[in-house]
Amino acid sequence: MLLHASGISKRFGGVQALSNVSLTASVGEVMALIGENGAGKSTLVKILTGVYQADEGHIVLAGEPTNFTRPQDATAAGISAIHQEPTVFEDLSVAENIFVGMLPCGGRLGLIDWSEMRRRSRELLAEIGVDIDPATPMRHLGVAERHLLTIAKALSTNAQLFIFDEPTASLSHQEIHHLYGIIERLKRAGKAIVFISHKFDEIFAISDRYTVLRDGFHVEEGRIEETDEAALVRSMVGRTLEQIYPKAAVEIGEIVLEVSGFRHETEFDDISFDLRRGEILGFYGLIGAGRTELMEAIFGLTRPAAGRLLLKGHPLRNSDPADSMAAGLAYVPEDRQHHGAILAMSIRENVALPSLDKLSRGVFLNRAAETDLADRYQKRLTIKASDSEQLVAELSGGNQQKVVVAKWLASDPRIMILDEPTKGIDIGSKAEVHRVIGQLVKGGMSIILVSSELEEVLGIADRIVVMHRGRITGRFQREEATAEVVMSAAAGT
Amino acid sequence: MNKQDTRNTNSARVTSLRRWLASWEAALILLLAAVIVLNSLLSPYFLDWLNLIDSTFSFSEQALIALPMAYLIIAREIDVSVASIVALSAVMMGLAGEAGFGSWAIICTGLLTGLLAGLLNGVIVTALGVHSIVVTIGTLSLYRGIAVAIVRDKALTTFPRDFFVWGRNYIGGVLPVEFAIFLIATIIFGVTLHRTVFGQRIFAIGANPEAAEYSGVRTKRYRIGLFVLTGLISGLAAILLVSRLGSVRLNIATGWELQVITMVVLGGVSIAGGAGTILGVTLAVFLIGWFTFGLSLINVPGIVVNLFVGLMLIGAIAIPSVARALMRFFARSR
Amino acid sequence: MSAAVRWISGQRESALGVVIILLLIVIGLRAPNYLAPANLLNVLINASFLMLLVLGQLIVLLTRGIDLSPASVLAFTGMFLAKLSHAVPETSALVYILLGLLMGTVLGALNGTLVAGAGIPPIIATLGTMTVYRGLIFLLSGGAWISEHEMSVPFKSFPTGVRVVLPNIVWVTIICAFAAWLFLRYTRAGRALYAVGGNPAAARLAGVSIKRAEFLAYCISGAIAGLCGYLWTARFAIAYTQAAEGREFAIIAACVIGGVTITGGKGTVAGVILGALFLSIIESSLPFVRVNPFLQMAISGFVILIAVAVNSRSERSTGRQILPPEAAPEPRETS
What we know:
Distance between the termini of chain B: 25 Å
CATH class of the largest domain in chain A: Alpha Beta
Radius of gyration of chain B: 21 Å
Largest sheet of chain B: 2 strands, antiparallel
Largest sheet of chain A: 6 strands, mixed
Strand content of chain B: under 5%
Shape of chain B: globular
Largest interface: B-C, 46 and 47 residues
Low-confidence stretches of chain A: none
CATH topology of chain B: ABC transporter involved in vitamin B12 uptake, BtuC
Mean pLDDT of chain B: 88
Helix content of chain A: 25-40%
Number of helices of chain B: 13
Oligomer: heterotrimer
Order of helices and strands of chain B: HHHHHHEEHHHHHHH
Low-confidence stretches of chain B: 1-14
Number of helices of chain A: 18
CATH superfamily of the largest domain in chain A: P-loop containing nucleotide triphosphate hydrolases
Shape of chain A: globular
Distance between the termini of chain A: 43 Å
Structural class of chain B: mainly alpha
Number of strands of chain B: 2
Radius of gyration of chain A: 24 Å
CATH architecture of chain B: Orthogonal Bundle
Helix content of chain B: over 70%
CATH topology of the largest domain in chain A: Rossmann fold
Number of domains of chain B: 1
CATH architecture of the largest domain in chain A: 3-Layer(aba) Sandwich
Strand order of the largest sheet of chain B: 1-2
């Protein structure tokens, strides 16, 4: 056993994030760390990597007790984390990204030895079977390559414990399999691996053991072959799978939106589709397929090279989101923290923002009406907050997402585009969001749901459009959509 | 943890933020009081009511520009070309005066020049997507350069008699027209920023420009609008300045951009955007204005006064941040 | 492949170099005596100040900061050293250089303490120190000027004194530019600046000290400004309170022309040197091209805007490349 963390507790202000949690990881083994968002997984990782210090508990690494006060301590001890969004230096080269903070020096003057850096980079990359020129500027690399780079960097610090935190969110099928191969290599090289994911197929494909956290508590652990998905979900959530993707029957009406000939120089081409009243149109694809870029163009955030929009038969010329809003469109963006909500402002200010003109008395703000609106939606979407004056920054991910949805619902749209609305949200909130979606279409709204989670799309979409590399590669009705055909369309095969 | 606790800690957090902001204004008021006391000790002429009113002539024009500048900085922009816009407007008005235009025509010339200069700033910033400090560094040279090229080493002094009303007259014999304009502007800018949809959107743009855009705020239009407003008010300030001085030379309003920015930042407007009050800016205006006036009464040269204002600026930002760090340090070592 | 990549990133500097050559040709056609060696040398000498100051500003800009105080630091150290030369005429040029560097470093360290230590936004901190240092000059000199006859010969003669073909000041510029290039490319502290400005969060995680990098950057900027203080005052043989007033913006403009981004993490020594050269040539050529000297400022401003526009064009991303260059596969329709 390489890592033995026990009795870990951590409190933030009034919230007990972890209570007496333990985690072990052994050499040559993959330990899956499972739990909903808010279960405490990322807090635990931050403690293991020295970003936070535990209030109580011990971390024993290779038989030695540890006391990390800074991330550098954890790195020096051999713990390395590979996060979902690798933090990199865009303007520096691959080699420099790998060696930042430990640039190799040499010679009598102690100057940086660039050729040594490149040589060692090539070696490290070769160790994981990757062939990238170390002099390539970082910004030319795609997400998958950036992950590989982070792994190479971890190897360069002689990491013994690799913590993978949701690494496959942006990877294609091939890239995921490549990653599995690398993890196998690391196992054989005697490294210990902790793998965090909430994709069950991955968990079952690659892990040897598992640990389940719920609400900051250690619930269960064991060997992966002794359990199954339903049992894991029960441990994680206390609920069964069927309750998560409720699909109500809704009557689908006439065409409300026609998109034809949408084209962008580099992001998408030849996009045409319809949306009907009461319909949930799923847009599936791998991350990077161009769906978000397409939706941003439809919503007026960016300008396509060509394309026509017909709203109930009338042409819609929207040069900015305000025009789209006026026409009854709403867009809940993928990046809720940077694009969706203004974290520094209160719930009330966020919810009221698109609707200020409607709420105002002339040019003057109408705070009472804003508060009223915010309270109404806080209740309707069960947003967990003390009151509408609370800053959005203080809410959990799931509740922040609800604020973003509330803000757009308050603008009374007829068509809503939801871009990855349940990404990174715990299963409980996910179910609530789906329930709300169901209610909305029942009330006559039409929804475009962009999602990279196959179960979600198969679960609630009436029709599925699949995109790959900027083009539509498949259209399926609900009845004929199976995981295989949808996924192969998404992979472009 | 029960709901009551959450509510208490959360409203405590919100009111503590408000409290901090209020405390910046409180600190300014304290400083202002200190300055008044200090200056009245240094010179018997300071506390003379008429002198204090008269002192407003020296800062009313810059103070006017501080108002739209506050809007810009709250919206995460900046305009360092304001002094050059004043110079250009002044020169254009000088030309209009020499061409024999009447007062109102001259005023329109000044306002129009300011408006167009601001418009150019706004258009370049939004069209090129270049940081406003870089663009306005360029227009700073361009506008003053044009002004200098026109006026050269001469002085433009031809203006109709009734033009001097704006910069020199008093309302009711007591309140200078300039100061009255500033007060009215302060009220308008204050109400607009804190009570209207327009103001709320400016805060949103400054707090998170992308999220504001995604939320349907027409950020491009607002940006251009703020630069146009700044240019327009700079033109207004030029009108007051020229009518007060009666003459336009190539070095008119030199260094004003830094004075104005100091007024805004000392007033508690965060350079990172999304926060600030007009009350704070107004207090800072009086703080700097009366401080400068008081020192000038004892013949401290302007450049030394600037030195103290620079120290005030640094102190105003450093002291709270150092105090917070010290508090954190003591809290941790307990 | 890597050579091609490196060539592409070197393009801005070579483009700027080409523009400068074209500029010289155009000027030469209109006013051939501008290209006379004696004049070019003079241009080079006067351009040296800007070329030195942009090195300091580059280092600060890399860390996502900005320094508005170099002109004030320059004027202050110049006044101080001029007084020294008046009081102790036998002092050698080397002492002035070292003292200039030292004083500049101290003044820059003050900036660094405010930014890195107290966490004050750089634009505000240096705005403040800019006016404070300017005021200090007045306190030091009492408003009086120090003119040529009050300065010692060793003081005045160093910058334009010729050693091995080129004047000393040009050598100083070459040495400093080389030192800056070496520092930024071959030392950990230099690379740390790029990391800190490029992605401060990632830099912190990698164990790079942001505060140390920022502090160092402002010290270096101050040191160079102090050195320039001596050289400037000696070359023009005048020390007064308003020396170099207003030049802070020209320094930043030259950096932007040279391809430095305001947001940090990007910029090269070659770029800023060329940017400074470009701006200096434009400014110095105007009298020769018979352009009204009163128009100089307007032209400078116009040029800066053009350079900024060109820069922004080349930096603008056309969106992520999602579409593959080849033809798309057949869509599979079942509805």
